[in-house]
Amino acid sequence: MPITIDLTTQNIPEQFKQVFYMDLDAWDGFRDKRSELFEKLSAVPNVVAITGDIHAFYAATPWVNDSPDKKIVEFVGGAVTSGTYRTLLKSQVDADPVLKSIPGAGALAGAIDTLLNGGPNPHLGFADSGSNGFVTVEASSTEFVATYYRIPETEVTNDLSALTEDKLAAKFKVCTFKTVAGEHELYMLQDDGKYMKWNPTTQAYE
Fold it and tell me: What is the pTM of this model?
């Protein structure tokens, strides 16, 4: 899915006040080819993308360039134990003399989810770039449900084997998403037990 950040309003040197793609080695570097793929996939009923390798948890409805009605649902699973996307970004800033010299660059990397949410990524219905964990999925003839189990990155180096099942479960934050057969819409389970649909125009679940 597209992942961009808007730094135009940040308190940084003027030359960096731009909108940036986060990873041009991935699909963001091949925007038109990705759009061609979405064009074909959005025409196929009940397509769901399950992806990873970015070390973060995302849920989204990426679409064809300039055609938000032609979309699919994508669930992105995070890393089980390796470094999270947020940590990798912070490490990259620390290791790059140019990035490290920019005032506030490290803080921006640490606040990546705040930068991802909002204007530049209306398709993005959920972002957690700083947790480890795993995803389970349940598929039926009527819906596809993805449950995200997220644990703080600081916990993955701890020995939790002696914990009871309840205490281990308490370490995780759980959130559940689904898409329904015949649609290309993203739903998130709310605290009241009801699902609400992601609205990319308002960038909220309604």
Answer: 0.95
